Amino acid sequence: MAAVELNNASVKYGRNQALKSANLKVKANTLFALCGPSGSGKTSVILAILGQVKLGKGSVVIFDSKSMQNVQIPGQNVGTVTITP
């Protein structure tokens, strides 16, 4: 089972395309790191997974649920670091 899936996810900030048809699948019970150069969309991926940014296209699936409202994420097992540009 996948803990997190991004399916053709797209995010725009005004005219800036942060993600274009991004796909990601993270299996449950695995350690995952999201690395890349500045401006590559790492923060946008995290914000999409957390439901803090609206997708223009695509979907985010967490533990087989397409709605973040139906998901209980154990806070002690989830860590995030985000920046505000």
Provide a descriptive summary of the structure in words:
This protein is mainly β and 85 residues long. It has one domain: 3-Layer(aba) Sandwich (Rossmann fold). Helix content is 9%, strand content 35%. The protein contains 1 helix and 3 strands; from the N terminus they run E-E-H-E. It has one helix at 42-49; strands spanning 2-13, 16-27, 57-62. It has a 3-stranded antiparallel β-sheet with strand order 2-1-3, covered by helices on one side. Strand 1 and strand 2 form a beta hairpin. It is globular. The protein starts with a strand and ends in a 23-residue tail after the last strand. The model has no long low-confidence stretch (mean pLDDT 82).
Give the arrangement of secondary structure elements.
Layout: E1 2-13, E2 16-27, H1 42-49, E3 57-62
Antiparallel strand pairs: 1-2, 1-3
